[in-house]
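Researcher: For the annotation table, I need structure tokens for tRNA (guanine-N(1)-)-methyltransferase. Please keep the output clean. Sequence:
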Amino acid sequence: MAFRATVLTLYPEMFPGHLGHSLAGKAMERGQWSLDTLQIRDFATDKHRTVDDTPAGGGAGMVLKPDVLARAIDSTSENDSRPRLLMSPRGKPLTQERVRELASGDGVIIVCGRFEGVDQRVIDARELEEVSIGDYVLSGGEPAALTILDAIVRILPGVMGNDLSGLHESFEGGLLEHPHYTRPQVWEGREIPAILTSGNHGAIEKWRREQALQLTRERRPDLLEE
């Protein structure tokens, strides 16, 4: 069964974006995955198609209304076991492990937040899993949704030319990836490390592992702690 992604958004024209190109785009053309969008505003019931309101208790900005968003979610997820994700800066950080879990399923439903946030009641009532792609704030959940779909689609079976490519990347073994080199042998006076052209595959793997550990220790010691 092909991987099915459904995105709930106020800006459906932002999709598929870059996912319509390169490996992801070709995989979509082959039917290996599909992407549908739902315009949240279509589920508003007033003549102005209102989707937001002022925050209870006061404060700046606007909040996405629970009734409108719930109708949008219910229209696509009835009898649907796909995980329901809400892209949110306060969500649990996205990891490669979670990406692999999502890629092993039938698909995902992604809600793109806007404004100050989403009414907590619909998050609770519709069991939305809040996911963050980093410690920063975007203008909306659409770029984050494109990011998580990019991470998922590229590791779907048959999408990458060599499926082994996805097994030797940063975070796959809890470490950052080792450095890479290619021809020419010497560039601007800098040579490819001799070990990589030695033909000794055992020594090469050992070197790559050591380099990965060193980079992780320098740049992401938190990964080693985990």
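Researcher: And a one-line annotation?
Model: The domain at 167-225 is CATH 1.10.1270.20 (Trp Operon Repressor; Chain A).
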